[in-house]
Amino acid sequence: MHQLRALVLLLLLLGSAASSAFELNAEGVAKTAELARKAALATLSESLKIEVSSSFKQQRDQSGRIKAQQAITTHSALPLLGVEIQLNPVKEGYLCYAWFNRDKSAPLYINELNALTAEIDNEAEQLSKLKDSGLRYQQLNKLMTLGEQFSSYAAVARLLNATPIPALNIDLPALQNELLTLEQAAPTLAIAGSLLTRDLPSGKYFIEAALPQNGYQATMLSRLLIDAMRPHLVTHAEYQEANLTLKGRYEIVEKGIIVSYRAENSQGVSVASRMVKLAPSAYADIAYQPDSNAFEQRLHDIPLPDSLRVALSSNHGDQGLLFTSEQQITLRIKFNQPAYYYLVAHHSEADLAYLLAVNDDPTKNPYIGKVDAKELNRWIEIGSYEVTPPFGEENLHLIASNSDLTPYLPPYINDRQYNLPRLRASNRDHALTLTRSSQQQITQQDKNNKTAEAVLSYRTMR
Questions:
Q1: Full-model pTM
Q2: What percent of the chain has pLDDT over 90?
Q3: CATH architecture of the domain covering 2-103
Q4: Is 18 exposed, middle or buried (0-12, 13-18, 19+ CB in 10 A)?
Q5: What is the fold, at CATH topology level, of the domain defined by 293-461?
Q6: Residues forming CATH 3.10.28.20 domain(s) in the chain
Q7: CA-to-CA distance for 179 and 201, rounded, in angstroms?
Q8: How far is CA 104 from CA 100, 107, 162, 415, in A?
Q9: What residue spans in the chain does CATH classification 2.60.40.3880 cover?
C-alpha cells in the first residue's frame, strides 16, 4: 500500500513539474469500493470548497467587498468534473485515490457552463411567453435552480483560470422578487414548511438549519423550520446516509423574513430551490436574530491560509448545525501536512472558552493532538462529545502548526461550575486574543513555522 501511495504522489509531483496546473488529490478508505470512492470524492469536494473560499476571501481582501454570488457559493458543496479515480484493495477493505488538475478539468467546466447557458436562455425565453401566474411560478423556480448551478460551476472555473466563462443572462435577484410577489407571505411555519418542500425531487434528505444572512449560528426559528419541513419529506438523522441535502438561509426584511432552501445531490449540484416569505405572525415570539454576530465575524475572519491547510467538520457536516440535549457530536479534522493541533470551544451563554481533550495518551498533554504523514488528506475522527449544559451558541476553533504547540497552549484552570478546562480569560474576546497572540509567537520564533485555523459553528438546545 505504501509503495502504491508513493507511486501516485510521484506521478502527481511529476505532473506539477511539467505544468503549473492547479491540482488537488484526496483518498478514502472503506469496507466497500463504492463507499471508499464516495469518501474520497467527499474529501476532494471539501478541499475544492476550501480553495474556492480562500480565493474569494483574497478577492474580498483586495477589493474590500465580496459579491453576493460568491458568498452564496461558499456555503454550498461544489461539483467535481474530470476526476480521476484509482481503487485498490487493502486490509481495511478498499483505498480510493481521487485527483484532478486544471488541464483536464477546466475545459469540462467551460463545456458545462456553455450547456447551462443555452438551457438558461431557452428557459428564460419560455418564461417571457407565460402569462399564467402558476406556470410562471414553476418556471421561475426552474430558472433559480439553473442559476445556482451556473454559480457553482463558474466558481470552480474561475479558480482553475478556465476561459472563456460565458455570461449569465438572467437577473437572479429580479427572479427572486417576482417569486415572492407571486406567493403570499406564509402566516404560519406549518404552511411555510409545506411550501419549502413542495414538489422537491424524491430521495432521502438531511435538513440543515437555515442560518441568518451573514450569520453562522442557527436560531430557534431555524429549529422550528426544520420541524415544519420534516413531515413532508423522507429524512435521515445521519448526514452521511442521505443522498440529498437541504441547505438554507434566511434574510430579515421589512415586514417579514425571506427563507430560501436548495436541495443538493451527493455531487454538490443544486437540483431544486424553494423560497418563501414569512409573515410576522409566523415567527411571533420566536427568537430569530443572531446573538453575537460581532464576535463570530471576528472569529471567522481567518488569515489567508499558507501551505498548511486544515479543515474541521462533524458527523452532520460543517454548516447549518443544530444539536439537542444528549445528542452525540463526532468531530473530524483533515490536514494536508503533518502538524500539531489543539481545540478551543467558545461558548456564548456562559461567555467562556475552554479546551477540548483530543489525546488519550496518559504520557502526553491531553489537549495537544498530532496528525502524522500517513493520515494526510483524509478525515480523521478525533472524538465524540455528548451535548450537555450549558446550551447556546458554540464555536470550535482549531489551531494547527508544524511546530509543537505544547509551549504555546493558552493558560487554563479547571472551572468548578462546569467542570471544564477554562482559559484564563475574562470573556470570549479575550480568549480569542490570547489564542491568536500565541500563533504570532510561533511564527516569530522561526520563519519556517506555519500556523493554520479552522472554525466550526453550531448551536445546542435543550
A1: 0.76
A2: 39
A3: Roll (3.10)
A4: exposed
A5: Immunoglobulin-like (2.60.40)
A6: 2-103
A7: 20
A8: 7, 7, 11, 55
A9: 293-461
